[in-house]
Amino acid sequence: MSALLELRGLGVRYSGAATAALEGVDLALAAGERLAVIGESGSGKSTLARAIAGLLPRTARLHGTITWPGLDHPARNGRDIGFVFQDPGSSLDPVMALGDQVAEVAHANLDMGWRAARRLAVELLDRVKLPEPAALARAYAHQLSGGQKQRVAIAAAIVARPKLLIADEATSALDTIVQAEIVALIRALVTEDGMALIFVSHDIGLAANLADRIAVFRHGRMVEQATTAALVARPRTDYSRALLVAHLGLEA
Ligand SMILES: Nc1ncnc2c1ncn2[C@@H]1O[C@H](COP(=O)(O)OP(=O)(O)OP(=O)(O)O)[C@@H](O)[C@H]1O
């Protein structure tokens, strides 16, 4: 498979911070590949996801390179990258109809008039398996459960048919059953659309369920990356082994 995205020596430092949030990350992602990024809180996972999507705050200084061999233009968030945040409550606009929030992304990125964008939004709400999508398009975020809101956020993230979907702890705020449903939805959508996926999670079990490959982060560095099967069977670092043991312990 051809490379969609390549990171070389990627580092990020937030202004005023004593240490870098991310340092020396070399990573490539193939078109259509599903990569999980795991590690404990503060290991730099969100910083990596935001750096790739161009969503770092102005206070962050970036080193190294992010290139997109799989695109013939600079990557644009919304068009080439769909980003799903942890908290759908804060990523959705409380005073804008849900369908319009999905339509807005299509209108802005697909050179599409509002009428067509609204029609497409209803199709997307249906694709993410929300009931009565036409009625739901006219509803507001406060009328939905957390899982339903995350489905709307996913619809908005994929409406412009991006090559890469980044889910940054997108299931962490949800209960276990809803979490499994959203993981299943993400898996189905990336398979159907041939999208690459970066799934950021602190949960190695969820990650292993979804990803072809896992990259393990600790203190801003990538300590290990391997295919999911290899990492689960033969973790090369004590840290990855500890994450696995903690997960298996919880399962038991
Ligand atoms: N906007 C910011 N300004 C300053 N420091 C930040 C900012 N965002 C993150 N950091 C710091 O950068 C480091 C990496 O944080 P990051 O959020 O990337 O880790 P994470 O692995 O995603 O953690 P979590 O799972 O808790 O979100 C941490 O030390 C964090 O405090």
Automatic annotation (TrEMBL):
One of its GO terms (molecular function) is ATP binding. Pfam families: ABC_tran (PF00005). Keywords: ATP-binding, Cell membrane, Membrane, Nucleotide-binding, Transport. It comes from the Bacteria. It is found in: Cell inner membrane. SMART domains: AAA. Its main location: membrane. The keyword Membrane applies. GO terms for cellular component: plasma membrane. It is a peripheral membrane protein. Residues 7-244 form the ABC transporter domain. Belongs to the ABC transporter superfamily. This is Peptide/nickel transport system ATP-binding protein.
